[in-house]
Amino acid sequence: MRFDILTILPQLLDGPFSASIMQRAQDKGHLEIQLHNIRDYSTNKHKNVDDYQYGGGAGMVMSIEPIVAIIEKLKAERNYDEIIYMTPDGQVLEQSTCNDLSLKENIMILCGHYKGVDERIREHYITKEISIGSYVLSGGELAAAVVVDSIVRLIPGVLNDETSALTDSFQDNLLSPPVYTRPPEYNGWKVPEVLLSGDFNKIEAWREEKALERTKQRRPDLLK
Ligand code: 6GU
Asked: Pocket of ligand 1, candidates 84, 87, 115, 146: which has the most ligand atoms within 8 Å of its Cβ, to mutate?
């Protein structure tokens, strides 16, 4: 799977993709990530990538020309399954969207800044608009890292048994049950007896009960 990420701040994305599961996925050949600096495609002499908005008002708008230049260049090289725009007014990211996107081959992601991109980019190129929640970030880069991470861990072969995505919270609309490791007693705080029992059926039943209890308490919206 390949991601092309269009950004005015590529340095913000160097860290998230160069450790742990994301780095391993690239090393194993499951994943390729290319960062593209939109400023490199600016043709004006100051290398500007934004301009004042028509109609007035505070805040700059990301210009059409450099973004179209890079999108067209990339589209000429391969077919893209999705061209995603990261924006607080997009559709809020859900596990079901991550699952769908994990089946794609080539995804382009455009990171918004300032007041956002000229609307004509959205009308003519963008196939999906994603937000990661109801709050505002300074730019779409950190949100893009969240999107990529949530997708990459679903690509077959990226996770091993110990880190399997199948038992993640949200995969079955349930939060995960509590987990424990050694020692069985610390400071008088005991691990629930059933987990030490070796009775697989009882343990599974306990986990399901706790997952449901937790979901009812914390995220009743998931059960509807
Ligand atoms: Cl995708 N971008 C920005 N700037 N803020 C956000 C967001 C995206 N998702 C939630 N807040």
From this structure: 87
Quote the pTM value: 0.95
User: Could you tell me the distance, in angstroms and rounded to a whole number, from the CA of residue 66 to the centre of ligand 1?
Assistant: 21
Provide the token pair at 42: 């600016």
Q: Is the pLDDT of residue 31 over 80?
A: yes
**H-only helix segments in 56-139:** 64-77, 95-101, 119-124
Q: Is 157 left (phi over 0), alpha (psi -120 to 50) or beta?
A: left
Q: Tell me, using a 6 A CB cutoff, whether residue 137 lines ligand 1.
A: yes
Q: Give pLDDT tens digits for 41-83.
A: 999 999 999 999 999 999 999 999 999 999 999 999 999 999 9
Report d(CA 168, CA 174) in Å as an integer. 9
Q: What span, in angstroms and rounded, lies between the C-alpha atoms of 126 and 64?
A: 13
> Which residue segments constitute the domains of the chain, with CATH numbers given?
2-152 (3.40.1280.10), 169-223 (1.10.1270.20)
Q: Residue 133 CA: which ligand 1 atom is closest? A: 10
Q: Mutate which of 131, 134, 138, 146 to test ligand 1's pocket (most atoms within 8 Å of Cβ)?
A: 131
